[in-house]
Amino acid sequence: MTKPISLIQFLIEEKRAGHINAQLSLLIEVVARACKRISVATGKGALGGVLGNAGSENVQGEAQKKLDVISNEILLEANAWGGHLAACASEEMDDPQPIPDAYPKGNHLLLFDPLDGSSNIDVNVSVGTIFSVLRCPDGVTEPTVGDFLQPGTEQVAAGYVVYGPSTLLVLTFGHGVHEFTLDREHGSFVLTRRDIVIPADTSEFAINMSNQRHWEAPMQRYIDELLAGTTGPRGRDFNMRWVASMVADVHRIITRGGVFIYPLDAKITAKGGTGKLRLMYEANPMAFIVEQAGGAATTGRQRLMDIQPTALHQRVPVFLGSRNEIDIVTRYHLEADDTRG
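Structure (tokenized):
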């Protein structure tokens, strides 16, 4: 029987292979340790007094759940003193969080969504943490918002943790995608899947169908074809899945293929919006993971990780998952744009 490989051992192997340095290894260890604390808090549910609203709003004007606030504080506290970060930024905060002057500073920038899918907490559906790691620009000792505004191609690591029946960490350093399962008895993450590959073809899609009437024409065309099944142009039946927790929906794709789509729609554009999901905290890290697993990730028109960010909380449409389906729906959008001239 092969001896289990712990996350710590895996990180040592990655350092020896020259894929990461000591600071990045420590950063991932600290994030994983923080996520174990979040896992304990989510696991207690009502017994821990963590359910319900916190009575506050985040920078996007969304009502915060108690666990949103708790998870954010856990990640901030864990990353403040280790010497591996220059600064961090959270979906829940207006501005980046500097590292206190009392502690040493590192060469990385951390961005995170502390509790994705938090609207599902009270109904006991899987939620998660998403994170992205960038290099701090050379010579910068007091990072500002502009130092975070790097395209997704500049990420040196990305990952997410799913808090479900088991707690799972999915991680990439740009050399494949690997899954670790939290062994609750021993308190350590253990490698359970190495070099994950998303099938190029799929018959599953995840989308909020209640918004269909608001979608653009190429999006309507694509979904109509899927719903037509064996009698339509695709010649086969498709199944729809929708958890409304991005971590859970993307993890299903990482596990067995599929596509996740949150397109631009008339409701969003009527408010002057450019998308629903956050580029820096959700779209870029998930795009990095999906691409490293052989999938594709676009806005419906361009590769997500090629976008030059213009704001810390910028929003974008998201299309990601099995490559052949993402290629088709992206082509439909580009063709519609060409037709309109």
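The chain has a mean pLDDT of 93. The CA atoms of residues 213 and 220 lie 8 Å apart.
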